[in-house]
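Forum: Protein Structure Q&A
Topic: Joint prediction for protein chains with partners

I've read a bunch of threads here and the consensus seems to be that you should model interacting components together rather than docking separate models afterwards. I'd like to see that in practice. Below is the full input, 814 residues plus whatever partners are listed. Could one of the regulars post the assembled result?
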Amino acid sequence: MILSAAGVLLRAVVVLTGTAIATFALLWAGPGDPALAVAMARYDTVVPAEVIDQVRAEAGLDAGFWPAFWNWIGPLLSGDFGNSSVTGRPVWPDLVAAISYTVPLALLGLAIGLGISVPLAILAARAPGGWLDRFAVAIASLGAAIPAYWLGLLLILLFAVTLAWLPAMGARTPSHVILPALTLGLGVAASLTRIIRSGILEAREQAFLPAFRRRGVADRAIGRDHIAPHAAIPVITVIGLELAFLMEGAVMVEVIFSRPGLGSFLVNAIEARDFPKVQAVVILAALLFVVLNLLIDLLYRAIDPRIGGQGA
Amino acid sequence: MRRGKTLTLDAVTFSLPKGDTLAVVGESGAGKSTLIAVVLGMLKPVAGRIAWSGGPVSACRPALVMQEPRAAFNPVLPLRRSISEPLTARGASVPQERLARLCDGLELPQTLLDRRPGEVSIGQAQRAGILRALVAAPPLVLFDEPLSALDAVTQKHTARLIADLQREEGFAALIVTHDLGYAAAFSDEIAVLRKGRIEELSPTSDFVEAPRSEYGLALRDAAFALGALEKVA
Amino acid sequence: MRSVVVLVTVFILIAVAGPLVAPHDPTAINIPDRLSPPGAAWWLGTDALGRDILSRLLHGARWSLGLAFLISLIGLIIGTAVGLAAALGGKIADWVVMRVTDSFLAFPELVAAVVIAGILGGGVGSLILALGVTGWMRYARVARGIGLSLGTRGYVVQAKLAGMSTLSIARWHYLPSLLPSLTVVWTGMFARAILGISALGFLGFGVQPPTAEWGTMLLDARIHMRSTPLQMIWPGLAVVLCVLAINLAGDALRDALARREDQSSAETG
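Posted by a regular:
Agreed with the consensus. Here's the joint model:
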């Protein structure tokens, strides 16, 4: 148990270090002179060579890859994400503002996804092969094939353009979150329905269930005490994966709906070649996933004590 | 010798002269498979030494005939490919004349070699396995329960073929088996293995006459009772 | 099953022969006829620059499907090599390789692809690189899993005993057993690559204009949603049908493999 916990922690460190080095290397090796990009972004005109050199020295870019890397990672370790190379303002407050838009969107999307998929999957699994089951599977297959950006556009077309029920662009009022969240949630629902359904079916096939039924344990109690935990393991796994999907989906959805948030923050930063901001998002995303994976790992252990042993 | 706390073999001591056959008999779980793995160098012994002409056994490129004839062949490749592996691995090609002679000796039509393992009988697959073991003329061949997957008639026939080939080729054979009747009929020496320990090591004729260990005696008498072993007078 | 085969065949035909049957030049600008509705001259209408949407869809298929094929193939090659290295390279290699794989897998692929393609600048090369380096992990896991189970097979033991090099053992004894499962993974990754290419195209980080590609077509169409909503429907529909067909084909393939495994285990067991 201690060994496997150490393994999980080690893995977290490996992920974060690897992401940091990879991101920095990508920016370092990417096309164009980073100093030129910074200078252009800052002064927005053609800049003379000595200004570029000055920027290079200021940003610590003239010292070579590793010193430049340490220049960046050192402050980062103490929580300093640096300053935007475009505006010169600290990255952190902007990042917090972006997060404050993305988190409600992601949570609402996840809630919608669970709200649709859990009842649908339970109903579908009640009569495998029945019309409801086939309907659920068909919807799930279709949902897995529809890209979020197209679904978003279709929803805008229907609810904002044709029916004019809901606002589509921006984030001025609380109702602005409905369509983006629905776009995210429908995507989540499609994959979750499939997984929960097969999770329930598999749990039901477990050998111990007929034995319980023979002993006269009530169906409801079997469902609660035995099927639910078995179905929960794949569901937790998928919610873990789903969070990756939510992050991806948020990037697309925020762009479609011109909504502020981490996705727009990232895309705008890339377009402006504002490297400190790009690095901040990537590191934050990596950190988020490391923490979430740790939590999921702990949840597994709580549900099924056998897993701790296997991980060692 | 397996990883972890279980030491499954100890105090195994034997030597095997060229051209001779040593049969290692014992019930399942006695450590026969471990013995083979150790001899072939697939498991490292914690202590002790295994040598062939003074060097490591793997240097003489020993061959192995396995218990499950079909599992020893890649299911998607024709037998011919697997059979030539011991030679192609060292950049040599299969001498056709030798292949033909071995096929004759094993009563294995060469056309069968173009089939896949699933398309030949178990007996044929086992003879193909013996063919692969012998194709590169190794000085030492290990047989891991070579007959146990075969039916009674095929068993006798295959045992005969192995013995004939050994006379021709002159390789040393280490046969691991639970079948004392087979061991008695085709070996020069018998080692009785029990719980990872050699209980006795005797010339085969002496063993059949009078086993020196209690366990050997029990084994022999059980074989007598079953009619698997006849007294060689 | 039959309809899936038909659908997949149709898409392959479109990708291969589409540009040949396209009625117009996909990049020919025709301002007087801009934003035309579907009709006799323009079967699916025209876009904001008066380019024929049907022709752009047909040409776009080559980019969307062809690039997705290439990208998923790159992932297949990288992933299989990585997985086999883990399975055949011993315990330490296995640990290191799988930790790296897990790290890649833990990160949202599309976000990584957006960052890579965005930093390197749009274009086909960075698109392939971005989706290629983020799309090999599933292959690696499958290849390693099956590879580890093959290590104790009789024929692998025999090959090692014969002194075959690790590389030829991987080539002759591991690869054939991996291919069926890897093909199933490949169908899924092929579909993901189509989605990824069009997503990057939609964000402006993918195939660059004026080349017709489904994602960039959607990006163009988005601005004119109010006046010509149909323009936005076609490329999206193309993506959905393609991905759906490939996913269904993958499901059918997986079921067929499962049945074959059942049969063969019934025969030997």
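The longest helix of chain C spans residues 230-268.
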